[in-house]
Structure formats: structure tokens, C-alpha cells
Amino acid sequence: MVRIKDGRVSVRKAIIYLLFGIGALLLGFAVLPAERLFIRSEVRFRKTGRRTVTLAYRFIVRLCMIFGIVRFEGAIPDFSDAGGKIIAPNHPSLLDVVILFALIPGANCIVRGALVHSVVGAIVSALYIANNEDFEQLKHDCACSLARNETLIIFPEGTRTRKGQPVTIKRGTACIALSAGAPIIPLYIGGNDKNGLRKKDPFWKINDNGYYTYTFTKGKEINPHMFDGKNERERSIRLTGYLENLYREHVRETVLS
To answer: What's the burial of 73, exposed, middle or buried (CB within 10 Å: 0-12/13-18/19+)?
Structure first.
């Protein structure tokens, strides 16, 4: 019975993956080019395009819920005050970006540069900030986005969390926050085991529950200029260490609760 159940879930996951891929191609090669025809301003086009992505990803998330693949537990945080701020979530699963784009209308994001050559490549190239840019250019692009009062999502681990490994924060998030003078809002994504959605997991895998639960806990806003140092490098190291301790402490509390 477990194998039959797992097989059915895998089929539903495969359908979602297929619909996501088709939707990404339609957005990238039909919807966004059509929007660009009517919107001359690059800033307005990106803003409109990212809101279109929000609507599309809300549809995907709704399908995941209808298919019984995803469930949300607890209250969803209010992100209406996140304009001009950095949302810094942990990254336990493949669906994190999809869910966050659905929850935060029009959010900007630093995305993996390799995605430019994937099914979402046209969307990434048109609307978001790829992390394969020169870092000074990346910081400039992030600062401009934040100055326009956009919400910027940065995954401070740089990649999906590996099971059984401690949370390790890269220094990029702190450098960007200090350079732009932007507050950081930690976001803790929890729930049950994400087997099948973690890094390098086969997509047909599923956890023992047969579905994925997601919880969201919004941390206290962090002012990057609270951290002293002789130079930006030293301040970024201290801020990164502070963030890493926050995430690791949250993981310990979650395990003990």
C-alpha cells in the first residue's frame, strides 16, 4: 500500500512539474514579451512582470494544495511592510521560491545564474538578478531595487539546505544589506521532512506523510548598521555570524519543541 500511495503522489508531482514547465515557457516566451510591447519603461515592465509571476505561481501553489502535495500550517506572515527590505529565508526545498513569489507580490530575488539556461531562463533573464554577475554589479542592482521600495528575497545559504547539515550562511547577504543600508527580515521556513524536494533528491521521492507541510516564522527586523567594524568586510563577517546563529538557534528550538 505504501508503494501504491507513493506512486500516486509521484504521478501528481510529475503533473505539477509538467504544468510548471509549460507555464514557465508560456510566461517567458508569450506573456512577458506581450507585456513588453505595451510597457516602454524597463522598471515598470519588471514590476509588472514580477506581479504576473506572482499570479502564475499562486495558481501553481493552489494546484499543489488541490493535489494534496502541499499544506500550510499556522498563520502566513504579513509582508506588506517589506518594501525596501531584504527577506532572508532558509532554503529547505525546491518549492520555496515558488511559494515565496506567490506570497510576496512582485518580489525581486537573487537567483542562481545557471537557471538562465533552464525552462525558467527567459523569466529569470527578464525580471530577476542572477548571481553570476560581477559582485559589484550585483550589489548595485540590489541597491537600486531596494531604493525603488521593492522587496528583495535573498537566500543567505546560497543553495538548498542539506539534510543533517548545520545552517551555513554566506557573506553575500550581509554585504548587500550593508552596501544598500537595507534592513534584513529573517524568515524561517519549517514543516515536515522535505524528502523529494531537497538538493539532489530524485523528484519521485516523497516523505512518510505523503505530503509536504510548510510553516513560516518571520523574525525580528535587523538593522545592518548595528554591527561595528573597521571596514565593511569586518562588519559583514559579524552580521553573517549573527545571522548564522539566529538560524541555527531556530533549528534547535524547532527540534526540541
So the answer is: exposed
Using CA atoms, how far residue 108 sits from 65, 86, 144, in Å, is 24, 10, 11
C-beta neighbour count of 14 within 10 angstroms: 12
Banded model confidence at residue 230, pLDDT cuts 50, 70, 90: confident
At 29-55, the pLDDT tens digits run 999 999 999 999 999 999 999 999 999
For the chain, the average pLDDT equals 92
d(CA 254, CA 232) in angstroms, rounded, equals 33
- What share of the chain in percent tops pLDDT 90? 77
Q: Check: CB of residue 194 under 8 Å from CB of residue 205.
A: no
Is it the case that residue 161 has pLDDT exceeding 90? no
What is the DSSP secondary-structure string of the chain? -HHHHHHHHHHHHHHHHHHHHHHHHHIIIIIHHHHHHH---HHHHHHHHHHHHHHHHHHHHHHHHHTTSEEE-SPPPP-TT-TTSEEEE---STTHHHHHHHHSTT-EEEE-GGGGGSTTHHHHHHHSEETTS-HHHHHHHHHHHHHTT--EE--TTSSPPPTTPPP---THHHHHHHHHT--EEEEEEE-S--TTTSTT--TT---TTSSEEEEEEEPPPB-GGGS--SSHHHHHHHHHHHHHHHHHHHHHHHHH-
The band of 8, judged by pLDDT with boundaries at 50, 70 and 90, is: confident
Task: Provide the grid cell at 109.
Answer: 530575488
Confidence check: pLDDT of 154 > 70: yes
Give the rounded distance of the alpha carbon of 245 from its chain centre.
20
Give the whole-angstrom CA distance, residue 172 versus residue 162.
19
